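Model it.
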Amino acid sequence: MDRRRHLLGTFLFIIQAIAFPAAKAQTSRLSTASVSRSTSPSRPDPVSPETTPRFDVTILGAAGGLEDGNLSAYLLREHGAATGVLLDAGTVLNGIERAEQSHGFDTLPLEGKGTPAQTGTILHKVIQGYLISHAHLDHVAGLVIVSPDDPGKPVYALPSVNAALEDNLFNHRIWPNLGDRGVKPAFGLLHYRDLAVGQMMDLAHTGLTVTAYPLSHGGVESTAFLVHSGKDALLYLGDTGPDNVEHSHRLEALWQDVAPLVRAGRLRGIIIECSYDNRQPDSRLYGHLTPRWLLQELGVLRDHAGVSMKGFPVLVSHIKPTLDDNGAVRTTIARELAEGNRDGFRFILAEQGRALSF
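Modeled.
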């Protein structure tokens, strides 16, 4: 036991010495960075003003690649609650800091607003666990980097996803094994919680529950998380291709399961990817969606629900930026979604730092 503690202390000292000065430097740079949204205090944007919100979402990371400080990560809480879970964790610390600058946490009762103490409070106390859709780096890099400084957190995922984290990341070759199983020594800072498909699990210290559904992502198993607060739910999808291209029925099975919630008015919204615009050929989707395919899949949900989808909120995630488009891909995707939106969905493009209420 003494040798195990000594090894753990050595690993943590080395990791923190290497990783966290960089994070502090990033913090310094961000403190004077401009943000695209207003810097005046505000409440989360109500997605459906006519209804009482049940969920708060703060976008810590929105992009589907390239921007290593802005990768998939969505902090989900019951409306007005002080704790929640992170849906994917491509960006964590930098995402917290950007959301602070955008006043994404103004409604949280936190001390030391705008200080490193508040950042630490959000990391350690507000985020009570991680829901990981799949183990690609743009969905887990932030988790890996903060793991030495954020002990005791559960990692909720399908068994295949947790196995990938255990075997391929936390293995003492890529990163020390800070999990509670796998190659020895296992230091136990993170606690793997395997989710069974279609079975509800409590998310500790949040008041939320989750049900996991498998998705097809170019040969990799990804995950959709149906998160409940009482009778209401929010649906988050990790990376997924369309059923027709993936030769799968996983999205249709998901739509069938959530259709009763739509009919009852209990599904408050969907967070779903749209990585490319419609110029991307099907042969190069790599397990992702375009506006054409996203609209087609949402049409399948509409058919199963059998009700009007007018005004139903869809938060569009995982748009892949390029170095030379100056944001044109976002504009193109927004236009293509609007042009094909015959059902009246309310599409909102994810933006880092933004807070929304569903």
